[in-house]
């Protein structure tokens, strides 16, 4: 299993580096959360100057490499990971859930903190896109494991590549 940043790097979504990679990852996650290119560009511009056209291009490139599924489906194995993104001396935590069998992004969210409560909230939101209770794949992060246990969900541990 890889970190969210690792997945985006491996997909080779971005060719140019005019805007820092972390800002682009944060932009994708913010867009998925807000569903607005204009709002995403405005939020990111507080950290780094970004146009709404740039955000739109990042999203299209990302969707070509990893489809985003917003449908409720039967899911058997879901990988969840979070990664820290540093932008303008602030830390943001990007959580992502991927349907392993379909290779689809289920959900991606940005939080300003990383703890049991935000993780549990994220997992509950992921379950809204599942018709069943899937098995989860996580790393050793205690906040992920504790949240899954508290919700009575099955999980397996995999280390990062």
Molecular structure report:
This protein has 161 residues and is an alpha/beta fold. The chain is built from six helices and five strands, in the order ααααβββαβαβ. The chain has helices spanning 4-10, 21-34, 37-45, 52-65, 116-127, 142-150, and strands at residues 77-87, 90-99, 104-111, 135-138, 155-157. Strands 3-2-1-4-5 form a five-stranded mixed β-sheet, with helices on both faces. A hairpin with a 2-residue loop joins strand 1 (77-87) and strand 2 (90-99). It is globular and about 45 Å long. The termini are close together. The mean pLDDT is 86.
Topology:
Layout: H1 4-10, H2 21-34, H3 37-45, H4 52-65, E1 77-87, E2 90-99, E3 104-111, H5 116-127, E4 135-138, H6 142-150, E5 155-157
Parallel strand pairs: 1-4, 4-5
Antiparallel strand pairs: 1-2, 2-3
Helix pairs in contact: 2-3, 2-4, 3-4, 5-6
Descriptive labels:
161 residues; alpha/beta; five-stranded mixed beta sheet; 6 helices; 5 strands
Concise summary:
With 161 residues, the chain is an alpha/beta fold. The protein has six helices and five strands; from the N terminus they run ααααβββαβαβ. A five-stranded mixed beta sheet has the order 3-2-1-4-5, with helices on both faces.
